Amino acid sequence: MGRKVLLEHINEAGIQGYDVYRSKGGYASVEKALKTMAPDAIVEEVKKSGLRGRGGAGFPTGMKWSFLAKPEGVPRYLVCNADESEPGTFKDRYLMEHIPHLLIEGMITSSFALGANTSYIYIRGEYFYLVRILEKAIAEAYANGWLGKNILGTDYSLDLYVHPGAGAYICGEETALIESLEGKRGNPRIKPPFPAIAGLYGCPTVVNNVETIAAVVPVVNMGGDEYAKIGLGRSAGTKLISASGHIKKPGVYEIEMGITVEEFIYSDEYCGGILNDKKLKAVVAGGSSVPVLPADLILKTANGEPRLMTYESLADGGFATGTMLGSGGFIVMDESTSIVQNLHTFARFYHHESCGQCSPCREGTGWMEKILHKILDGHGTLEDIDLLWDIQRKIEGNTICPLGDAAAWPVASAIRHFRSEFEDFVKNPTAHREVKYYFHCNNLDTAASYSSL
Amino acid sequence: MQLENDMAKVTIDGIQIEVPDGTTILNAARMIGPDVAPPTMCYYSKLKTSGGYCRTCLVEVTKGSEKDPRPMPKLVASCRTTVMDGMEVSNNTSAKVKDARAGVVEFLLLNHPLDCPVCDQAGECHLQDLGYEHGNYKTRTDFERRTFDKIDIGDKVQLHMTRCILCYRCVKTAEQITDGRVHGVINRGDHAEISTYVAQAIDNDFSGNVIDVCPVGALTDKTFRFKSRVWFTKPVDAHRSCDTCSGKVVLWYQGEEVLRVTGRKDEWGEVEEFICNTCRFDKKKTSDWTIEGPRKINRHSVIAANHYTNLVKPKEFKLNEIKQITE
């Protein structure tokens, strides 16, 4: 049984409410931080813990915090990025829905460490029901003196607000999030300056993922050195993985980083194996933007070593044979899945979500979707596959924000690892389309009724 | 001594120049000259925070600086990246840049209608120049292009979104030189469109400048639409005393008639000074203006082809000569 630090008490009845959460040792980190630690000492503990950003990029959190500019007389802000929009990722939703006080506790501790007196939780518009849950939790925190003026009798004051977005993937990019929070159109800013220098309202700002901020609570409670012992090497701590797709037990799992991918997919503790005991075909390991890997490469690296659920092991081999841990959206596809159809779904998403600011992403994402649609419709040619490759190559790295890369990587990896399937689809589209009906229905009778239409 | 500290040496395509700290790579390249300056579609030196969107000015930084000589991992937008001392930049000499730029041109043209034969901007269109210099000769797309209905922004300006490349220059103009911003972008991705707030007309003294800053034919002067091709008109510098603007303009003549009035554009296609709507739309008589003389136009421009000295007329073929050719 892997060690759990975030979801330890998730199964307690009433953990959503303040009283149960408090009775299980909640808000201990705030007490410890405000009464016994200096803000810089907390940053130091976070650095020692080796905690890395859980939103996707995996940047060391302590380092990010220490970059925060601290000019005199200028407010600093902490913004929690709860705009969890990556397809395949739903860990933050789970966390906020079932244990909202953990996030609020993390926000208070982190805000104190950064010297922020106003903090925001920017939540995606689709999570409107979570806004109510969070606001109720915040009200409880205010009522019990964890938020507001002079928390715990110290001279530290903090106000915490929940701000729902309007439902845009791009607002998960930190500068677009800041623009949106300021009430503007959610376009990513051109960096530099980075938010640590000039972020929200032009003031130094730290933007962290929900899970990262929640993980600050155990870091402060147990101390940085102790937290660093969990996990493996530079991938310290635990990670929430949103497992979905063709597995027996989809859901959110807290894993100690370092277990093998094979264990994660096949052990009963986690995914429980492939649905209907089919063969594993491919895995998208960290949300839709990261490269898709075929079964042999996800289970073992190119060197034949077993692949582990860590930042380093998943990235082993670069993009040629590796992928990324990303945000932990673990999408498993069995042998019946069509990679071409899957890629079209992803491409359609990125086309829909491109903000339209810079030209490669604005035009390129739509172009890739149209070509994939053409292939799916049975009008594709072999040149279209090369064209797709060329388009993704010209988008990647040439855009303002990472959305361009996120749109390009799935296309690149699908063609790199499954080129023969694309060629097969182009040469014999009818056969593949029949397969589509069958597997989308998962039911022979329904499939038969479709084909008779 | 103080001065030396504030200067940075930067090498662009093998040519070294010393520029003040904080200069962008693009402006350093422009100081060297048009041969090394990257093309721009969205950057506009007169507008704050412009640039970074079109990605045509991407350059490769092969050496970060004297202190940190590592090359930058990605191509950078030269209009938004400041120089460092000892930086080495490849623009025209980098195959990576050429490839990426050709890609950007292809992306920009992907949904562009290419209706140059009926477009008023043809002849002074930055996208035409860019496509000619950096683009492919052939399109690789056979999909239907995105189209929009034409919208009137006030009674003098027409917006034809189909041609727009979303450079945001007009948005920045509306934001920075006109009062009461009613101009912005709605929707997202390739459906994004420039719009006035709920199709509200821009009604202020400087709204006409959005025509001058538009690099393509998306924003056009309704008083000039379809009157003539720009290369049939003759630009003349003129001025008048105006209360709201500098009054320094270019008059575009066809015969004795002033067809349109625009701001004076420099060699980068940017206006020197923004002019007011009265000068632009209402003063179309020679008697309103003090004429300074013919406007100097870059000899490469088609506008230069019809005027001025060194004019080489195309050979007039006689009928029998044409016959000989066809035979």
Q: What does this entry look like structurally?
A:
The complex is a heterodimer of chains A (453) and B (327). Chain A has 453 residues and is α/β, with parallel strands linked by helices. Chain A is built from 20 helices and eleven strands. In chain A, strand 9 (280-284) and strand 10 (292-294) form a beta hairpin. In chain A, helix 3 (39-49) crosses helix 6 (100-114) and helix 6 packs across helix 9. Chain B is of the alpha+beta class. Chain B has helices at residues 2-5, 25-32, 95-110, 126-134, 169-176, 209-213, 277-282, 319-326, and strands at 7-12, 15-20, 58-63, 76-77, 87-90, 151-153, 157-159, 183-186, 193-196, 219-221, 234-239, 248-254, 257-262, 290-294. A five-stranded mixed beta sheet of chain B has the order 2-1-5-3-4, sandwiched between helices. Chain B has a four-stranded antiparallel beta sheet with strand order 13-12-11-14. Classes of the chains: A alpha/beta (453), B alpha+beta (327). Chains A and B meet through helix 15, helix 16 and helix 17 of A and helix 3 of B.
- In the predicted model, the low-confidence regions of chain A spanning at least 5 consecutive residues are 437-453
Radius of gyration of chain B: 22 Å
Gap from first CA to last CA of chain A: 50 Å
Count of runs of 4 or more consecutive helical residues of chain A:
20
- The helix fraction of chain A, in percent, is 40-55%
Most extensive interface, residues per chain?
A-B, 30 and 34 residues
Domain count of chain A, please report it: 3
What is the CATH superfamily classification of the largest domain in chain A? NADH-ubiquinone oxidoreductase 51kDa subunit
The beta-strand count of chain B equals 14
Widest sheet, order of strands of chain B: 2-1-5-3-4
Low-confidence stretches of chain B: 309-315, 319-327
CATH class wording of the largest domain in chain A = Alpha Beta
- The class by helix and strand makeup of chain B works out as alpha+beta
- Which range best describes the helical content of chain B: under 10%, 10-25%, 25-40%, 40-55%, 55-70% or over 70%? 10-25%
**Oligomeric state of the chains present here:** heterodimer
**Roughly what fraction of the amino acids of chain B lie in strands?**
15-25%
Please name the CATH topology of the largest domain in chain A.
Rossmann fold
Give the class of chain A from helix and strand content and strand pairing. alpha/beta
Number of helices of chain B: 8
Global Rg of chain A: 23 Å
Mean pLDDT of chain B: 87
